[in-house]
């Protein structure tokens, strides 16, 4: 369970734990959060780089589109003050574990069985889905958020190893 993040050092430590110790971040304090973005290596572009907000009270980390850090902070604070769910997609702590198992492959398609466990509701039974992928052009069905998370991991593995993964686990 995440804990409150009261200061800049705690925010940096949490980002390093979640996103990797080799990254540096610019950080901006807002009323209810720590707004951050990875600092690009020399000579690389930052346009389109995601930003993150660490909620000071809960320690929950959300991912946000590439906007100016003060804009993200203002929108985050405004949502909190209005009693709304804050913007962004939660990335920490993970809410679910997705276990993938390849069950079929032919020259044009590949299919995975996806078992989903809700980490914040461990007494709930796991659910099972199927993910069907067309290889060229690269498309997948269904297109829900869990399938998108699984597909992101699959494509990363494909690009890294050069082959479709047989099995794996991703949390999100």
Note down, in words, how this protein is organized.
It is globular and about 50 Å long. The protein has two domains: 8-92, no CATH class; 96-171, no CATH class. The strands form two sheets. The protein has a five-stranded antiparallel β-sheet, sandwiched between helices. Strands 9-8-7-6-10 form a five-stranded antiparallel β-sheet, covered by helices on one side. By secondary structure, the chain is of the alpha+beta class. The chain contains three helices and ten strands. The longest helix is centred in the last third of the chain and has 17 residues, at 145-161. The protein has helices at residues 8-19, 69-81, 145-161, and strands spanning 25-29, 33-38, 51-55, 61-64, 89-92, 96-105, 109-118, 127-134, 139-141, 167-171.
Shape: globular
How many E-type strands?
10
How many domains? The number is: 2
Percentage of residues in DSSP E strands: 25-35%
The H-and-E topology, N to C, reads as: HEEEEHEEEEEHE
Notable traits:
172 residues, alpha+beta, 2 domains, five-stranded antiparallel beta sheet
Brief summary:
This protein has 172 residues and is of the alpha+beta class.
């Amino acid at each position: 369970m995440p804990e409150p993040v009261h200061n800049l050092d705690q925010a940096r430590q949490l980002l390093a734990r979640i996103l990797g110790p080799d990254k540096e971040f610019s950080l901006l304090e807002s009323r209810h959060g720590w707004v951050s973005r990875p600092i690009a290596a020399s000579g690389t572009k930052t346009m389109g780089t995601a930003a993150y907000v660490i909620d000071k009270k809960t320690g929950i980390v959300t991912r946000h589109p590439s906007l100016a850090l003060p804009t993200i902070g203002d929108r985050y604070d405004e949502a909190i003050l209005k009693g709304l769910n804050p913007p962004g997609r939660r990335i920490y702590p993970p809410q679910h574990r997705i276990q993938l198992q390849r069950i079929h492959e032919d020259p044009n398609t590949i299919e995975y069985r996806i078992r989903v466990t809700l980490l914040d509701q461990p007494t709930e039974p796991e659910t099972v889905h199927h993910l069907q992928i067309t290889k060229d052009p690269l498309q997948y069905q269904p297109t829900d958020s869990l399938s998108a998370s699984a597909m992101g991991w699959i494509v990363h593995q494909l690009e890294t190893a050069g082959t479709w993964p047989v099995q794996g686990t991703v949390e999100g």
